[in-house]
Amino acid sequence: HVQLVESGGGSVQAGESLRLSCVASGITYKGPCMGWFRQTPGKERELVASMEGYGRELYANAVKGRFTMTSEKDKNVLYLQMNSLKLGDTGMYYCAVRLNSGCPIRWPDFSAWGRGTQVTVS
After folding, report:
1. CA triplet 63, 64, 65: central angle to 5 degrees?
2. How far, in whole angstroms, is CA 40 from its chain's centroid?
3. Would you say residue 53 has pLDDT above 90?
4. Which has the closest alpha carbon to 48: 39, 56, 40, 37?
5. Where residue 80 falls among pLDDT bands split at 50, 70, 90?
6. What's the alpha-carbon Rg for the chain, to the nearest Å?
7. Closest Cα to residue 79, out of 89, 70, 87?
8. Is the predicted pLDDT of residue 87 greater than 90, yes or no?
9. Considering only CA atoms, which of 40, 26, 47, 44 is closest in space to residue 103?
């Protein structure tokens, strides 16, 4: 049973930083694609960043140069360091895993999700 638990969200001022964490458990698939998505009311979940097999990273254009995705494999923890936060970064942030080959960008192609952590930038 796969479980993803996010934490680290909060309310910050524009220009500040936050680090989100995602603790994963129950993943038996070797080298899965992990991703961070965000969603705002009335909009689809959009990919923020993904990491393929704990290697190659992909970032949305809107966050390139500001966000960094890392992982601690031995602790099964995924991080999203968010710097220079902007009003447009506000949203619910979800951690996701794909239990199959490939590392897609569409949210329906991911297998399991956390419950999300809210980030509010003002």
Report:
1. 110
2. 14
3. no
4. 37
5. very high
6. 13
7. 70
8. yes
9. 47
